[in-house]
Amino acid sequence: MMDKYEKYKQAGLGSRVGFGKRPAIIVVDLNKGCTYKDSPLITLMDLDSVVENTRELIDVARVKKVPIIYVTMGPFRPDGSDTGMLGIKIPGIRFFSEGSKWCDIDERLEVREEDFVVWKKRQSAFFGTDLVMLLHRLQVDTLIVTGCVTSGCFRATVLDACSYDFRTIVPQECVGDRTDDIHEANLFDMNSKNADVIPVEDVVSFIKNMEPMT
Fold it and tell me: Among 187, 212, 185, 213, which Cα is nearest to 200's?
């Protein structure tokens, strides 16, 4: 019996997009609401390694002046009236309200003055935000997407990045979800249709060997 890999290969899926010349790193929802162990929103999810790997990638990228763009959920009205259908499906997102610490980016990533922070109220980092305008102004052609969760906001962002014709790279050790099977299935599918899912060491190697951005 033909396995799924052969089926996808025979269907002509999974070609490589590769890196362009001007990358940016997008960090999706590595906020305290998703990464802190005491968060009221997240259960049975450990993203410590994702945060650590993303921080290491960011440190390498800073040397070459690669833009770092953090994307976080909220802020929503305290009554949740602006959460829409997403708030019905995922009531917990109401905790990302104005002034809540859960919206803040995990301090282990060390947001700096030169970085960018984009706020979103839906799953994709592109929906209802100025992200596309920012990327065009920075003349970015490649998005290195990290964060969580693989099957939710992360995937929505990757799909939209592909739709906007950015070369999209996913460092597989810099992404996480609640369960391994859902995580792996979504990485496999994105790698087949929307992005290059590759080891973070390959992304680090590319950045180290590129010319500094100006």
Answer: 187
Separation CA 101–CA 167 (nearest Å):
33
The domain defined by 29-158+174-195 carries CATH number 3.40.50.850: yes
Please, what sign has the CA dihedral across residues 42, 185, 171, 123?
negative
3-class secondary structure, 119: strand
Where exactly are the structural domains of the chain? 29-158+174-195
Q: Which of 34, 148, 153, 174 is catalytic?
A: 153
144-170 per-residue burial string, b: 16 or more CB within 10 A, e: under 16: bbbbbbbbbbbbbbbbbbbeeebbbbb
> Among this protein's residues, is 153 annotated catalytic?
yes
Terminal Cα distance for the chain, rounded = 52
Residue 128 token pair: 């209802």
Measure the CA–CA gap between 138 and 131, rounded to whole angstroms: 11
The 10s digit of each residue's pLDDT in 80-134 is: 999 999 999 999 899 999 889 999 999 999 999 999 999 999 999 999 999 999 9
**Are the C-beta atoms of residues 146 and 171 closer than 8 Å to each other?**
yes
pTM > 0.85: yes or no: yes
